[in-house]
Amino acid sequence: MKQNKNTSSNNSPRKASMQTYHFLRSLTHINLTRPSSPLHRRSRAIRRAAYVSMARAASPRRMWTRAILGRLQLLRRARLLRRRRNYKKKTTISTPHDKLRRLVPGGEEMDFCRLLEETADYAEFLSKQVRIMRSVVDFMEAECRKKEEKV
Amino acid sequence: MHSSSFSSAPPDHRRFTMSSRRSRSRHSASSRITDEQMNELISKLQTLLPEARLHTNDRPVTNANAAKVLQEICSYIRSLHREVDNLSERLSELLETTDNNSAQAAIIRSLLM
């Protein structure tokens, strides 16, 4: 589609642009429904759009993309409910392994090696998403400032 | 809980009733076999951390500081999650205050950048 905006990224230009495109398309859609929705609901919709556009731009073979796009989510919720019912003791000490599992979507269902690979992939797309959102915010603020200067 | 195709332990068909103790032993079994591979992966993750770009090859990943690297990765991902939350809030506020034309112009500019 368009050029790669991040010179430090080692991805193909197309992948980064697809992420931008998905996110901006969702943002436009959210923008259109602006008057009717309250602020916090909109910010949650934007947040969801951020994660979904990450997942859409990444490989569908990844566990984390599948988890975000919902196929594993239902299973996981059912499993968590069942776990809470079965286990009385609460594990108070969580190792870094466990923490990482909980941070990466779909992390509960893979072994450790796979988890590390997924983490690398996930962190890459996540940092890209943050860059995209930062630049959108910058552009919007610039437009606001331009508008104020004209008045 | 763990996908059986990647671990060396016998496949467990009753995934939902797997005990936490068994899952921990399975995890340690897989880490004993692929120790070198794991260190490689952890090194790769280390390069993703922002502060790793400052001192790139100073510390090779050993079993001793593997836990520390994992901690750093966890806090890095957590900070990224927080940033996404903050930026979403800011974006929704900005959408509220900017008029339609400015918002569209900003969106188109981001796309073309």
Sketch the major β-sheet of chain B.
none
Query: Percent helix among the residues of chain B?
Result: 55-70%
Distance between the termini of chain A: 36 Å
How many individual β-strands of chain A?
0
Sheet with the most strands, sense and barrel status of chain A: none
- General form of chain B: elongated
Number of helical segments of chain B? Answer: 4
What is the share of helical residues of chain A? over 70%
Structural class computed from helices and strand pairing of chain A: mainly alpha
CA distance, first residue to last residue of chain B: 43 Å
Radius of gyration of chain A, whole Å: 19 Å
Low-confidence runs of at least 5 consecutive residues of chain B: 1-9, 11-31
Structure report:
Chain B: One of its GO terms (molecular function) is protein dimerization activity. Chain B: Residues 1-37 are annotated as: Disordered. Chain B: Keywords: Growth regulation, Transcription, Transcription regulation. With 151 residues, chain A is mainly alpha-helical. In chain A, 70% of the residues lie in helices and 0% in strands. The radius of gyration of chain A is 19 Å and the shape is elongated. In chain B, helix 2 (35-48) runs parallel beside helix 3 (63-97). Mean pLDDT of chain B is 69; it is low at 1-9 and 11-31. At the A-B interface, helix 1, helix 2, helix 4, helix 5 and helix 6 of A face helix 1, helix 2, helix 3 and helix 4 of B.
Would you spell out the secondary-structure blueprint of this structure?
The complex is a heterodimer of chains A (151) and B (113).
Chain A (H helix, E strand, L loop, with lengths): L12 H20 L6 H19 L5 H6 L4 H14 L9 H8 L8 H39 L1
Chain B lengths: L19 H14 L1 H14 L14 H35 L2 H13 L1
Helix pairs in contact in B: 2-3
